[in-house]
């Protein structure tokens, strides 16, 4: 039962992961797109941090049903979203695309001053008329060279950023019934090698993810200051340097009976530096880049391509 419903939870999560940035790009003004769409990444990181602190807290509840608490708390954010869905504005572009012009005007009037709303309505309508004459199928992403090039960029960026290791260094640790630490975070091995107990390792994980969230917020104010490719290149160089130093430290001073605690602490520090740089320059940038890489009429498909590539990396 657990595995079956995890399938549905995962499916819903990735529907959200792909749909929300597209919706955000169609709601926010283009001049603020980078900062506002990057809220998406910061919110994901807040979820990671919350899950880590939740795991840390419930670790100290020594009952056989302690595992139910974190699962139950996952329902709370979803219930909040559902409760406020009535007041969530629909994408004006989608409404106009479906011929629901009056609803689109009402949404735009809530989002903009009257003159700006009227101008944007006209622009969206004209753009949709132009877009309708252009190929916009899934097949065209493969058959049309210019579209295929963009799709390959999206897939390459998604895979490239995940290959830096973010999926195996960011993760909320959990604890089994026997109180044995399990985690998708390789840092737990280093923390354990330093002699820290399970509760302290969970605390490190929570601090790690909290730092990620703080840096994700900072990224919102950096993303529009530099070209997207510069941020990705600079961020990749920094995180690769951190991982190189960490790998060298662990290789030369591995955890064990005669371990070098100073070297292993430095390795832990490198993981924290890694996540700071990854969130400042890489994670949020990719969501904005997917949205901006494709024209309006292909944006949803392009974003889905990027999200599917991230999901594939998750599986791998």
UniProtKB/TrEMBL annotation:
Annotated compartments: Membrane
Membrane spanning stretches: 6-23, 35-59, 151-172, 200-223, 230-250, 262-282
Membrane topology, from the record: Multi-pass membrane protein
Secretion signal, residue range per the UniProt entry: none
Pfam families: Sugar_tr
Keywords: Membrane, Transmembrane, Transmembrane helix
Transmembrane helix found in the keyword field: yes
Residue ranges of every copy of the Major facilitator superfamily (MFS) profile domain listed in the record: 1-316
Main subcellular location of this protein, as a coarse class: membrane
Entry's Gene Ontology molecular function annotations: carbohydrate:proton symporter activity
Family of the protein in this entry: Belongs to the major facilitator superfamily. Sugar transporter (TC 2.A.1.1) family.
Record protein name field: MFS general substrate transporter
UniProt organism field: Decorospora gaudefroyi
């Amino acid at each position: 039962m657990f595995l079956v419903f995890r399938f549905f939870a995962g499916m819903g999560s990735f529907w959200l992961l792909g749909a929300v940035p597209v919706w955000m790009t169609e709601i926010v003004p283009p001049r603020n797109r980078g900062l506002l769409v990057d809220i998406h990444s910061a919110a994901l990181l807040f979820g990671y941090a919350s899950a880590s602190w939740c795991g840390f807290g419930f670790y100290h509840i020594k009952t056989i049903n302690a595992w139910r608490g974190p699962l139950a708390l996952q329902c709370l954010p979803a219930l909040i979203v559902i409760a406020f869905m009535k007041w969530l504005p629909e994408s004006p572009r989608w409404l106009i695309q479906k011929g629901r012009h009056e609803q689109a005007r009402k949404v735009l009037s809530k989002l903009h001053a009257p003159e700006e709303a009227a101008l944007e309505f006209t622009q969206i309508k004209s753009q949709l008329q132009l877009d309708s004459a252009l190929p916009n199928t899934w097949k065209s992403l493969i058959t049309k060279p210019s579209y295929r090039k963009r799709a390959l960029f999206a897939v390459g960026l998604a895979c490239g950023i995940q290959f830096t290791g973010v999926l195996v260094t960011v993760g909320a640790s959990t604890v089994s019934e026997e109180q044995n630490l399990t985690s998708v975070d390789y840092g737990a091995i280093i923390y354990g090698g330093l002699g820290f107990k399970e509760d302290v390792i969970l605390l490190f994980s929570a601090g790690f993810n909290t730092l990620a969230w703080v840096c994700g917020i900072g990224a919102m104010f950096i993303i529009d200051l530099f070209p997207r490719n510069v941020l990705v290149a600079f961020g990749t160089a920094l995180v690769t340097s951190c991982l190189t130093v960490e790998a060298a430290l662990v290789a030369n001073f591995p955890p064990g009976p005669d371990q070098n605690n100073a070297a292993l602490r430095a390795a832990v520090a490198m993981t924290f530096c890694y996540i700071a740089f990854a969130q400042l320059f890489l994670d949020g940038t990719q969501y904005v880049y997917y949205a901006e890489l494709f024209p309006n009429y292909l944006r949803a498909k392009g974003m889905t391509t990027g999200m599917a590539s991230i999901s594939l990396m998750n599986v791998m």
